[in-house]
Protein 1
Amino acid sequence: MADERFVLATYELEDEEKALKKRADGIAVGLTVGSWTDLPAAQQERMQPYCGRVEDITVLERLGEGRVRARITIGYPVVNFPARIPALLTTVFGKLSMDGRIRLVRLELPPAFVGAFPGPKFGAAGVREILGVQGRPLLMSIFKSCIGMPLDALVAAFTEQALGGADLIKDDEIFFNESIAPPEARVQAYRDAARRTEEETGQKVLYAVNLTGPVTQLRDRARRLSELGAGALLINAFAYGLDVVQALAEDPEVTVPLMAHPAVAGAMYAAPGYGISAAILFGQLLRLAGADIVIYPSPYGTVTLEANEGREVLGHLREDNGLKPALPAPSAGIHPGLVPLLVRDYGVDVIVNAGGGIHGHPGGARAGGRAFVAAIRAVMDRRPLAEAAGESPELAAAIEKWGVKEA
């Protein structure tokens, strides 16, 4: 970052090569002061500190008939917007997002601007400290078959997952129905169940409750769930809005980690040539907003993120920018046979996050969790999973069902 006064936004777009300079100038002016050449000289002088500027234009590919694929970088004065993500996004990609084939691929933020955001309240180290677990990946189980289930059945399912060795158990992000087992009741019941399983196993387990309700009530509910003993708060960050995440992270009465789910984000990053890169959404913005744990697609599950972009997400979650690093939870289609790849690609500070890989185990959820525990232990001991399966019937059954991919 050469100039602390500017946020630099880089776009990839398609246009006629001869029109690139005019296009870039139009973005720089249009998303800041609105107009320039028609302003009187005195007004131009007053508006100068607020006007965007073109930093770079690079042709990436010539497409024929004078059209090109290009990168344009625009500098936006930091003085134009506060350290709030809606203000940042509206400035750098608001109406521009509707201007044809254009994609926001990079944001360079001045350190002082980054430092004005809360960032993760706990971060990777803080979550580990709560759990008392160091030196290995964490295991998270996703609650499945929960909608419409009575509380006693849910407690029984929670107990099975906890006894399987899960460090965290999270709600399904689609669990909004409160007619039978509202969040407050689940938190209290699972809190008591977690105490019982901890007495039996010696292992602590955190329950991530889905934070739901009208957006105007979320902060009060988050405080209440924290007080009742929630282990973490699961928030559908892009459905509710990143500013909601930031408000929760800034609230001293929200005293548990925030876990961000990527639901709806595919509408923002998945179309080639349009939208915002996943690295910005999952890596930069969620960490700025204050997510302690970030769930996003892995490169080898059922819903995948391209490997290079996944590495960029991880880099943003961990980069040395003054904020606490967030824990990655690569997801979708994770089974015990993928643990070697997870540790290879993400290191030890990763959450192994599984739904079907636990509940779909032939022996049930408890056996599914134990299969993951055995796989994690084997990888940390640098043993092949096939060898470890000889000592773990649960892991052997998982490998027979899903296979194994050694690093």
Note: The first strand starts at residue 6 and ends at 16.
Protein 2
Amino acid sequence: MLFPKKVKHRKWQVTRRNAKVLVKKTETRGITLANGSYGIAATTQARITSNQIESARKVISRTLGKTGRIWCRVFPDRPFTRKAAEVPMGSGKGEPAGFCFETYAGKILFEVDGVTEALAKEAFRKANSKLPVKTRMITR
């Protein structure tokens, strides 16, 4: 699992998440292919946990085999908190449970190179089932 070595703040404040605004919001950075020939880009907004990123990376790696090269363009640096099971309401914020990455439409999540388009498409189809966002495949 991915997580930062050191964080300035253990718990982040909750951001505003108006659904009407989030539907229209798009990324401005990380929207073009930088390394590979094929990429998988998010088309919706979501928070992707480090477990989900690692699961998608593993399935892409297994599908491509030894021939392909993978680049992960996202890193989970946002901590999220969770209260323990059966804890009553009140008594403050929960303890940090892990790290996530907040993505918006247009952000490239993974890139691959050195494989055929059909193999890359199959790898991204499998990875899409591991991620909480809708995605599309893009080519150079």
Note: The two ends are 29 Å apart (CA to CA).
Protein 3
Amino acid sequence: MLEAIGAGLAALATPQAVAFMIIGVVYGLVVGILPGLGGIVALALLLPFTYGYELGATLALLLGAHIATIWGGSVTSILFKVPGAAKSLALVFDGHPMTQQGQASRALGASAMAALLGGLIGAVFLAISIPIVRPVMLALGPSEYLMLALWGLTIIATFSEGSLLKGLIATALGIMVAFVGMDPITGTPRFWFGIIYLLDGISFPVAMIGLFAVAEMMKLYVKGETMVDRVAGHEQSTVLDGVKDALHHWWLIVRSSLLGLWIGVLPGVGASVGGIAAYAQAVQTSKTPERFGKGAVEGVIAPDATLGANEGGGLMPTLAFGIPGGESMAILLIAFLSMGIVPGPQMLTTGLDIVFTMVWIIVIANVLTTLLGLAISRHLARLPMLNPNIMIPLVLSVCLFGAFATRGLVADVVIAAVFGVIGYTMDKYRYSRANFVIGMVLAEMIERNLHISLNLYGNDFIFTRPITLAMLIFIVITTALPFIRSWRKKSASGVTR
């Protein structure tokens, strides 16, 4: 074991590996910041560069870029309410309100430190847990994945302040949009209205760019002010404040990291679900859940810690069983095979040095990303205070380019504009855009796993699968807790009067 750890580090101690690591991290930060792209596009563009170089250097380039996109995607979510990728969605809920309150530096600092700590926990997990987690993975089936997705839906109550009905309507609309296109199980076309383009469904990154980015620029144009509230006036925090926040909420980081590891281990679930689930558990376990959605720093820390740890968890099934933990891991699996790395049980014996090379890359890439992120956060925090005449065309051009780059279709740019109008209208009439997107993210996962569960286990699968039943009870309890806590506060205030 110690020899493998040393060999893994030695593979990265060459000039080529060091250079590729730095290039990968910088490239990943840039691509991560561009809306609609993120880790999948970053890795896909690097695939041609996986031939003819040292194995350690190539892994450093790929994994370094992949790790860096995590924090890169968080930047635009926090500063402009524009998720850099689907997995960064949860960062907009509290990250952007912090920016509006003049605390962008604090939010970016907390985000970078939480991602670092989560990534380190993920690396340690990857190093020690592959033999332990295998039987657990094999015990879970589609019915358990269904419960996990349903748990993600419980967060809709958080963003339904003032009207739970409006929150439910927004979620239902998101689910309906996700149903456009081919049925994932039967292949039957649905809601395509004879338009060939709609057979592929509505691209989630494109819809997200429209709902948040385009809609926010419309609001900014109508308001005619900077994105930072006039009350805040100017930046009122420092990056160090955010770092202290992350260290202060160390237990939240540990909990969120363990959740990210768990979701990363489950094949096909993906980091976007992890970010939403992390936010949900942060709200449900908080003593002051009413602060969330209004600029609570915990709402930034929890998702980023989960996303950082998710990568270590996602590599576990990819390496041990050849089953991608998510979309980005599928691209990595292709790269591994092209480099002669064959995933499977032999990775734990003859390929242990390669596993530890990846562990070291995750550690070093996380440290490099955090150092770069903390160094530039102070300058990035000034961007939302730019004149709207500069901000609007700059952000719109980048976002519409991102919408086009997702699939190379001009129609996606039109769809982004349409969803921009929808997002602006929803915000104006206080229908939660967050609920809309959560419904859209989880709809396919719920539908697919429900179909498979019914076919495999029958109509009574909830009661015949003990783990599924236990998870359902857990969902009911965690969903009820905020309402019980609110009822107790009202009762206590009534007694006081």
Note: The beta strands are 181-182, 189-190.
